[in-house]
Design goal:
The protein contains six helices and 25 strands. With about 325 residues, it is mostly beta strands. It folds into two domains: about 220 residues, Jelly Rolls, CATH 2.60.120; about 90 residues, Jelly Rolls (Sandwich), CATH 2.60.120. The strands form six sheets. It has an eight-stranded antiparallel β-sheet, with no helix packed on it. A hairpin with a 3-residue loop joins β21 and β22. The protein is globular and about 65 Å long. The two termini are about 25 Å apart. The relative contact order is 0.18.
Amino acid sequence: MEPLKLMPAFQDYIWGGTRLRTELKKPCDLERIAESWELSCHPSGQSVIINGVDKGTTLKTYLERDWRTLVGAGAAHFSSFPVLIKLIDACQDLSVQVHPDDHYAREHENGENGKTECWYVLDCEEGAALAYGFNRELSKEEFRAHIKDNTLLDYVRLVPVHKGDVFYIEAGTLHAIGAGILIAEIQQSSNLTYRIYDYDRLDDNGNPRELHIDKAVDVTKTWAAPPRMKRPPISFDGYTSAMIADCPYFTSWELNVYGDAKFPASEGVSYTHLMVTEGEAALVYEEGVVMSMARGESIFLPANFGAYSIRSHGCTILCTRTMPK
C-alpha cells in the first residue's frame, strides 16, 4: 500500500487568474486557471493518480475496485465519493450564488448532490473581502424584490478576509468569493450552483451568464448568520491541529507541523487527503520510505493505509477525511 499523488482537473472560468500556475506550480497550459480539482471523482473533472502501479488511473476507478476497504467506514454508505477539494484563484469577483441541499437537488436536479462547503483562505490581497449571507434578515419577498431592482448587494454581508481564515458555507447560504483571494475549498462532490447576481458579465461568446433566480429564492436562507470560524488549535508532539469543518460529508483540520508528527493507522475508518498549503514536508511510511510534499500538492491515503509520520521544519497541511457519524 502506497500514498497516491494526484493530478488535478483544471477549470478555466472567466473570473480565474494565473496564480495556480505561477505560485503553486500547477502544470496547466490554460491561459487562465480558475480552479484545480485536487481531489475529485466528479464526472466534470476527475483526479488522476500520477505515481506507482496505478499511475494514469482515475481516483474514481481506483476506489471502485474495493470501495469499502479504500474509502473507509465513514464514506462507504455514499453511492459515490462524497468530497471534492479545489484550489480557487479569484482574479475577479465570483457571482453571488447559493447551493441547494441534497433534498432539493435530488428532487429538482435529476438526483444531483447538494453542496455544503468550507473555504480556507490561502492568501489574499490587502483589502480583499467575500460575501457571506445577509447583513439583516429578509423575507423571501424582499429577497426577490432586491434581486429584481438591482439592490441586493446593499443587503449582502461583506467580510474582510485574511490568510488562514475559515468560512463554513452550509447549503442555502448566499456567498461569493471576492477578487484577489486564493482559496482551498472542501465541498460535497457536486457542481451545482444557482447564480443570483453576476455583475452583468458576458461569457466568452458574448452572452450574459445564466441566472437561476427562482431556484435561488427557493433554497436561500435569508436570515443574518455570522460566519463560522475554525476551532482553537490543539497541541500534539510535533504539530498542532485545528478543526475547520465537521459535517456528514467531510471533517477537515488545519495541521501546522514543526517536527516529526506521527499519525496512527486509519484502521478502516476513513481515507485521508493531505494538501500542503504552506511550506514543504516529507511523508514517511513503511519503516522509512519517504515521499516529498511541496506546496499545493495533494496525497491520498486509502483507509487501509498504515501508520505514517509527517516531517517538516514548518508547514501547513489541510487534512480531510469522511468520518462515521
